[in-house]
User: What shape does this take?
Amino acid sequence: MNMKQTLVVIGNGMVGQNFLAGLVASNANDRYRIVTFCEEPRAAYDRVHLSEYFSGKTAADLSLVADGFFAEHGIEIYLGDRAASIDRERKQVTSANGVVVAYDKLVLATGSYPFVPPVPGHERPQCLVYRTIEDLEAMKTAAAKSKVGVVIGGGLLGLEAAKALKDLGLYTHVVEFAPRLMAVQLDDGGGAMLKRKIEALDVKVHLNKNTTLIDDGSECLHKMNFADGETLETDIVLFSAGIRPRDDIARGCGLEVGPRGGIVIDNQCRTSDADIYAIGECALWNGQIFGLVAPGYAMARTVVADLAEEAGSFTGADMSTKLKLMGVDVASIGDAHARTQGAMVYTYQNGASEIYKRLVVSQDQKRLLGAVLVGEASAYSTLLQYCLNGIELPENPDSLILPQLAGEPAGLGPDALPASAQICSCYDVSKGQICGAIEAGCTTLGGLKAETKAGTGCGGCSALLKSVLDCELTKLGVEVSTDICEHFPHTRQDLYNLVMVEEIKTFDELLDKHGKGLGCEVCKQAVGSILASYWNDYILKKEHIGLQDTNDIFLANMQKDGTYSVVPRVAGGEITPDMLIAIGQVGKKYQLYTKITGGQRVDLFGARVEQLPAIWQELIDAGFESGHAYGKSLRTVKSCVGSTWCRYGVDDSVGLAIELENRYKGLRAPHKIKFGVSGCTRECAEAQGKDIGVIATENGWNLYVCGNGGMKPRHADLFATNLDKETLIKYIDRVLIFYVRTANRMQRTSVWMDNMEGGLEYLKSVVIEDRLGIGAQLEEQMLHVVDTYQCEWKTTLADEQRLKRFRHFVNSDQADDNVVFVEERGQVRPANAQERKHFKLIEEAA
Amino acid sequence: MSTWIEVCHIDDLQADSGVCALVKGKQVAIFYLPRRDAVYAIGNFDPFSGANVLSRGMIGDIGGEPMVASPMYKQHFHLRTGVCFEDANVSVPAYPVRLENGRVAVLPAPLSSQQKSPSLAVCEME
Assistant: This one.
């Protein structure tokens, strides 16, 4: 007998999905059979990052639903079927397609719709809205035959939409009814600074404009007519004039709605019918609609708690926001407009740097009421904590927005925050939860993110997260030593800077000046790599040889029995039959075990140290060069066959892969680096699992960074889109050298990224916007490495002295008798312990 | 009683690194630290991996004690005594080594544990 009650959820948007995910993870999961209706043809996706659909993300990338989620949890979903009506008497929902489902509990997560002002002409073709992926597809189709686009509405969403139009290559205008941009969140000063910055990006902003009519244009499809008599011609009109709650289904069944729309809910998110809840943008709480996703999630949590019979209530939400609009940092906190009785205001304005900051404080100047930040928003998390937790302000509150003088500690120490303080608003993680995770053994920023999810949403809190971590570790008595080892009181990054600034060329010089003792394998290898990437000397020079690991010394990879494997470079995986034959001949002659690697080349195993020079002489004579499989350096650039042969290929991935491999071969780095280049979005080269991934599109190359396979796979982040080759190479140059300079030793790019304060956005700002002003320097360093490349095997073979090392004994030509092979599947392999015993017996008997 | 066996010239050694010598059928790893003006000799066989590779490890010090890190699984061994830093129950033989007229000689009788006092284990040069 089925004791389960039926729970119906209407709407599978961000909040609806968040509710489902919360519910199946809760105690209430077993009590309900869950049915959900989704009007759109696809399940929930990330509307907050919708504009990224135009900068290369696909609908699949934006999806918020893990593969198999509905099936795994037994949730029945009706995709592309709108719930049309509710019969509260019979407690059943009827869909547009005629599906009827009886419910015990019902959750309305119907969201909102874009408000289109009733301007005459608003129904003309190419007059669009911006909310769903279908809307975006309509924009894309329209943009293909358009030159000019206008967004009506200069709010948060409108500016996002303007970015989308800009990304589509249109000449873009923003038309706003109010006298400033983002009228809800910003004051006049902040709005003016934002306008200036956005206009610098080639988006024209028109304020105080009331559109009265849209009719035929002469140059463009439409002419917009404004109340002040002015006109503006455009091919596309995009309405982004606010949202309205989708409450029609609630009205239809007689639930209470607000005078201006919105389904009325109480603190448990119950509507006027106790068995029906409403959450997200369709809900009206205390006369307020919340048009942000975080309050919607908070409502979802409340309903989950209520269904699980746990305590929980929705008591309003903080509407503070921080975002990046077309690369401009904008933040608004609390009472930004100073509407509180007696509020006092501080402002800081820097015209040259285009920064505006405003602080709203209580009459006694003890509490922060609100703030506005434009152009520079690093103080956001500190200010938000002051505001949300009612922390007493410092004596001079303006010190919080004035530029920091060198050496002065910035902002608020994490100790001042109560355990209940919310650190990450995206995932609602409190300081208490973070401290708990640290006590349970999470001692790195990356680990903390993985454990608590804090800092993995917008990333805005990662600096604060880091300071909580450092502070807690210190309190726990964990010494937070970032020294590379006992020989240098410095991090790898410090050592890199010392080498650059003092032009240090050898380990001994660095040790004498900044270290102690003899060094060890940790600092020696790190410094060896630093020197190699900065000066790019031959790594086996006398003064560098002690810094190299055995693989680098013998320019081959040591295997379990002390023999080595040999990997010649096969750039891009492209190889002629003659070259293949040459590898085969070498393998055969020296009886090497051969295997194809994951990096599209051939590995030859079982070479004794004394065989290496002869093997390499033959390979070099055949036209090969070192593959650097032994180095912490660029390994391979994997490619698919690309447009040259493939029916679907969009561009020449093999050609680009070869060019990239030849450019970056030999670059020494904190860890190995792998690339991939795919000729189309089918992604056969698996570029998104590489440190650097490149995917061809019809408009150029998309660049992905910091992915990796291995023990902990990480999907690469989309870094920049539709690049020409020159820009692509410029960005890769900068990313790689920045990595080489700033990563810890043995840190792959993925971990480097996960531990970087500010994450992807920060890396973009350094590489694309050149915020540190070091772009040219980074490129120059890469150019030096490229220009001074040498095949290490060629150099070694030409040096008698060096070749002396390639023997097992310094005083004998004998081979190591401990190396024993047996045959398996037609090739050699090292003998195992059992087999060795067996051979020993035979030897002794003879 | 063993006698000193000459193995090579000082120039055949590798500064801040190691070489392997065949001494009376035994594989001996010899390390040269110019910074300490010292030469050390220990067995070449790495007990953790079962391969003859210690001469190819990187050298340096831990807390001032000269050491080699196995190139295979990175355990550290005292160059003076052959004892493993990570597990004092594991050790490799340590041999007396000396330098005379630029020639390197090894005494192919390992130091007994009693003799494993630092001053005997090495030839600290002038």
Remarks:
- The two ends of chain A are 79 Å apart (CA to CA).
- Chain A touches chain B at residues 486-487, 508, 517-521, 523-525, 542, 545-551, 553-554, 558, 560-562, 804-805, 808-812, 814, 816, 818, 833 (CB under 8 Å).
- The first helix of chain A runs from residue 14 to 24.
